[in-house]
Amino acid sequence: KNEVEQSPQNLTAQEGEFITINCSYSVGISALHWLQQHPGGGIVSLFMLSSGKKKHGRLIATINIQEKHSSLHITASHPRDSAVYICAVGESSGDKLTFGTGTRLAVRP
Amino acid sequence: DGGITQSPKYLFRKEGQNVTLSCEQNLNHDAMYWYRQDPGQGLRLIYYSQIVNDFQKGDIAEGYSVSREKKESFPLTVTSAQKNPTAFYLCASSSIARSYNEQFFGPGTRLTVL
Predict the structure, then answer these.
(1) Mean pLDDT, range B67-79, rounded to an integer
(2) Cα separation of A5 and A102, whole Å?
(3) C-alpha to C-alpha distance for A26 and B96, rounded to whole angstroms
(4) Quick one: DSSP state of residue B24?
(5) How far apart are CA B67 and CA A93, in angstroms?
(6) What secondary structure does DSSP assign to A4-64, as a single string?
(7) Alpha carbon distance A91, A78 (integer Å)
(8) To probe the interface with B, which of A4, A99, A103 has the most B CB atoms within 10 Å?
(9) With an 8 Å Cβ cutoff, are B45 and A45 in contact?
């Protein structure tokens, strides 16, 4: 079973700061997902990647398959980015996902 | 709008009572999932279904039951056998035809057992 570790568990930043959240996993995967959970509890998918790098607005996700590591970056952070960010991995296409415990981000104005 | 609905958002029950959580999707997805989320823990899989009339146990199925009579619906029953049912429950769905298993989540139901 894949072990998914996220760091840090909690992160507080000032508005405008560059933020990095890390995710490492123990077993080779077919894809890694970054999810965002808002205080109300709903979860949205931010990225799904199997190699390289993806960018969407101020969010950037990278993955290093050899090192079994992914990072989520937020540039020019804003209070509306405050949420829990969750990393999840799937070991084969169509397989179930294994989730990390999440990183709670608070961005102060 | 396509999406996943869960109802109700908040649910209170007395200890010893069974309770059923609703999950409906209009995304035409084959697969549906139920997860439980507790503070400080990652989402844990309770049950999943990849096709109508078939479902499999996840990592923490004890004390729960599901049915999949229609493609759109995957209700979860929390039985009195579940030792610690108070938690946040999330339903998700995905298209098996698409690779990499991108899952779409519902808004969740927060169950409190008194």
Answers:
(1) 97
(2) 9
(3) 25
(4) E
(5) 24
(6) EEEE-SEEEEETT--EEEEEEESS--SEEEEEEE-TT--EEEEEEESSEEEEETTEEEEEE
(7) 33
(8) A99
(9) no
